[in-house]
Amino acid sequence: MTDPTPLTPGSALARLTEALGSDSKRKGPPPVERWNPAYCGEIDMRIAADGTWHYMGSPINRPSLVKLFSTVLRKDPERYVLVTPVERVGIMVEDAPFLAVEMAVEGEGQGRQVAFRTNVDDLVQVGPDHPLRFEQDANGGLKPYVKVRGELWALVTRSLALDLVAMGEERAADGAAIFGLAAGGVFFPIAPASELGIA
Length: 199
Hints:
With 199 residues, the chain is an alpha+beta fold. It is built from four helices and 15 strands. The chain has helices spanning 12-20, 63-70, 158-166, 193-196; strands at residues 39-47, 53-55, 58-59, 73-75, 80-83, 88-93, 98-106, 113-118, 123-125, 132-136, 142-149, 152-156, 169-173, 176-183, 186-192. It has a six-stranded mixed sheet. The chain has a six-stranded mixed sheet with strand order 9-8-7-12-11-10. It starts with 11 loop residues before the first helix and ends with a helix. InterPro entries: DUF1285 (IPR010707), DUF1285_beta_roll_sf (IPR023361), DUF1285_C (IPR048342), DUF1285_N (IPR048341). Pfam families: DUF1285_C, DUF1285_N. This is DUF1285 domain-containing protein. Residues 30-96, 97-190 form the DUF1285 domain.
């Protein structure tokens, strides 16, 4: 199958790729929080709610290119941007920029360790630096997220979300019963127990 994402010389995608280089041996993401080049406007790039990256309406079918771009993604106060030392361009993100697609769990209770792998192979362990947050979707369903880096979060896939909730427990907080999950020495509230019908 041919890749519908050609790197047309001079295109925004080609410029970003050239600025990043192709060094696959880079250790960790670059320091995008320290780069402040001029904002160059929006490009036609979108991260769909299912984690698929699109450019000019077509999926980017090169995992190495998606991973490369994911390392220079940043959330500014007003928008998501791809940042290189020389330019900053806005992109659209439908929900969270990443998906948490694999989970490992060790231990129980407050000492429980939970780690995730994202769809772009970031590895994060839940705790104070990588908290969980829980939101409701439009249909009243539960959507857990884990913080990856900066202000970038990964949506936990549905099957893993069910496993997370199965590890939950009820605790008292501020005089109310809260259902939540303990991991990495932190208790992450999911919802008031009364909303879940367990209080």
